[in-house]
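This is your field. Have a critical look at both lines of this record:
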Amino acid sequence: MRLTSRWSVTFHPAGEVHADSFHEGGARELNIEIKPARLQLYREFGTVPKYGVVLSGGAASWLAGRLYDEFRRIDELSTLTLEGLVIELLGEISRQHARQPRSDLPLWLCQVRELIGDRFAEPLTLSEIAGAVGVHPIHLAREFRRYFHCTVGQRIRELRVEHACRALSQSGNLVADIALAAGFAD
């Protein structure tokens, strides 16, 4: 597992050949190696990716930033805290990996994903989204869950939280203003 920037996390399973290259400005990198026996233990509780995964932004990046900050802090509780953050980060990587769309994703479902990505802060309804792509709302709900392993509402909520997390870490705006801009009513 590697933190390639404050907002990017790369997971490489054991044995995967990879290389790192950086722009002229350089980068900071934190590499975390998980022993195969420990990784196997984690696999008993969920699906750990079997191939490389790259995530930018969202909960994985926030957790990686916390992990890096804790690594730099080092005190008597750091080992416990670092282990907990690594497990949580691995869980988030696994969760996001499980949500990756399958290769047979219908075009209309790609359009739904793009629509909610662009308009997550708006008060959307399932009927409105289904009408925009020309499918029945029940069919949309069923197929979205089948391909993305969550409901449309859960995905919109995740996008709102990710947006709010980025805004909280990158701006000095009031929490209430950030929540409203992300689409939350309170």
Observations:
- The two ends are 36 Å apart (CA to CA).
- The first helix runs from residue 36 to 43.
- The chain has a mean pLDDT of 79.
